[in-house]
Amino acid sequence: MSGREWLRRIGNEMLDLVYPPGLYCICCGKIIDESRTYRLCNDCMRSMNWNTGRRCLRCGRPLAENDPGELCFGCAQREAAGHGQGFDRGHACTGYGACAQAVIFSLKYGGRADIGDTLGEILYDYMMSEYDEDELAAIYDIVIPVPIHSDKLKKRGFNHAELMGRGFAERAGLRFDPGALVRLRGTVPMKGLGPEARRANIRGAFGIRNSRLTQIQGSRILLIDDIFTTGSTVDEIASVLKSHGASRVDFLAFAAAGDMVI
Ligand SMILES: [Zn+2]
Ligand SMILES: [Zn+2]
Fold first, then answer.
1. Which of the ligands is closest to the CA of residue 69?
2. Which of 39, 56, 170, 247 could pair covalently with 72 via S-S, beta carbons 3.0-4.6 A apart?
3. Phi/psi at 86 (nearest 5 deg)?
4. Using one digit for the tens of pLDDT, what is the confidence trace for 177-199?
5. Ligand lying nearest the CA atom of residue 88
6. What is the pTM of this model?
7. What separation, in Å, do the N-terminal and C-terminal C-alpha atoms of the chain show?
8. Structure-derived torsion over alpha carbons of residues 221, 115, 99, 39, reported in degrees to the nearest 10
9. Could you tell me the residue ranges of all domains in the chain?
């Protein structure tokens, strides 16, 4: 190693000491101090559309303050259609704005597996703002992440929903089973597809692992995913789980698109 290389190496090590990679805002990349909640800088903490206002009573997505209804457009339609096999209740921590999108993209496409646990912490705090730990344990038997196809798993090296789900379930002291569901086939990206096309795209894409069939019977399940949009994915999974005897299927997502967004 030349003297110059050595100096550069020491210089880099020193930089790592002063600015460890964990000390950047997970949304904008600005340097932050260690004590920041959820590793977000002040600006991103403020810009995140935390879901603290009016919410759809069914799926939990944020409702406009001037929206007179208690359900979002999609849930009102599902209700009118007598949708029985879908999910029961949903929860989402933020609206799907630029900040939530940046964080999700870094986790899924930027190789930032470390963000999974931070989102797990956010999921936990959100649920703790709705329930206490005893209530949560009394409502749910198993926490299950939405599985991704094996091709994606190979490419990314991890399932982001599994990392989020583990972070959540460990904090909440709930049973976590990342292997309960299997992704039977890939799907085309949902972006740009209407509700019908989304349902057709996802139909038959999920199954239950044979070894889990008995434990699903009578279970109350909380599904974990990154984003909730039209609900076609969670509805499809809920109908598979319910056809095998699950008694309740709710979901918990980090972000939910606003009303009438598909
Ligand atoms: Zn930031
Ligand atoms: Zn809704």
1. 2
2. 56
3. -80, -170
4. 999 999 998 888 877 788 788 88
5. 2
6. 0.88
7. 56
8. 120
9. 1-47, 53-256
